[in-house]
Predict the 3D structure of the following.
Amino acid sequence: MSGLRETAAALRSGSLSARGYCEDLLERIRERDAQVQAWAALDGGRALALAGACDAVRTSGRPLGALHGIPVGVKDIFDTDDLPTQMGSEVFAGNRPGRNAVAVERLIAAGGYVLGKTVTTEFAFMHPGKTRNPWNAAHTPGGSSSGSAAAVAAGFVPAAIGTQTNGSVIRPAAFCGVVGFKPTFGAIPYSGALQFSPTLDHVGVFARSVGDTAALGACLAEPGAVAAEIRDLERAPRIAFLGQFPWKSGEPDANAHLRATLGRLAAAGATVKELPLPAAMGNAHIVLRTIMLCEAAREHAARQARYRDKMSATLNAAIDEGSGIAEKDYRAALADRGTTVAMARDLFADCDAIASLPAPGAAPRRLDITGDPSFCTLWSLAGFPAITLPSGLANDGLPFGLQLAAPAGEDNRLLRVARWCEAVIGFRI
């Protein structure tokens, strides 16, 4: 299946019509979505009308945006003016905000449109939605951006938008075998999306290649934050890797695959070395949880008081825990986060990017969980950019991924390294 950039070029040239392309995607959705269940809201007639309007713009001779005619899946926590935004929860059933989130406005300004709203876990936390993994419907697609990752993997859209507070872009992208890119905190505005933790919530994107994530990310991000065109590296990258985090180890087959992948990168010229995390960073998972749940309680405790019986036990427990966190402990966690950011930046003194697993293993054969986000925790806490790219298949046929990270503000360096690695690995769905 063609990726975002190739499709965008065909749409701009007129060799492909936006309406015809939309019709093809809707047909694919009709064929497969009963198994995948990626969509929270999808109106085929509306989508075709928007695609037709894109064709009219092209024939009018008006300037075309970088995403002209591109349909994108948008996680159902982003406000949209013509589709419901229900946050994966009965609490927001029928909610129609009547406005667009900033990221959605930027998508439209670039010539694209929202094909439909993709399934999110409840309030973008841990309680699963209905989506299944496109590789095997008995396995989780990850979360919380489950529908966005699955929709790209299933070929329903060339790209999608999601969010990450802990592991909600990187993990589902890895589980579904697509590229997931979480830029530096704040690079893509969060305004107009359901807040869970203001200190930690990031907007991210999904696509089928590193270059495609850059092309979408550049249109959504603040000016200059993400380059639409990735420059070639002048030399092979220097990559440090974390074999494990103090709070979590990878599964044996995933660890073996990671080391084999790094071996291939080294054989292609990369400098690869193992990097232990400083002992002082060993509590990063506790720091993140303290900040995340305390802020979630501040955001949602009043809503919980009114709608507790409509919330899952998982979400209620999280808000209850957050409500019990003392102000001094929250302030201490924010201070610890500042220390972690400084130490994390120092890790990159002698490397271009840091590699690790994106999750302990391939997608678990369960639908009652979304998987462990532990391998994403450090970069979410620090607000550093991270990307995962598919790197091969596990014995059960599910995808493995390779996560790469760079310091805050170095998104373009990260994308350059990731594209180099992608070319060496050579695995595409």
Remarks:
- The chain has 13 helices and eleven strands.
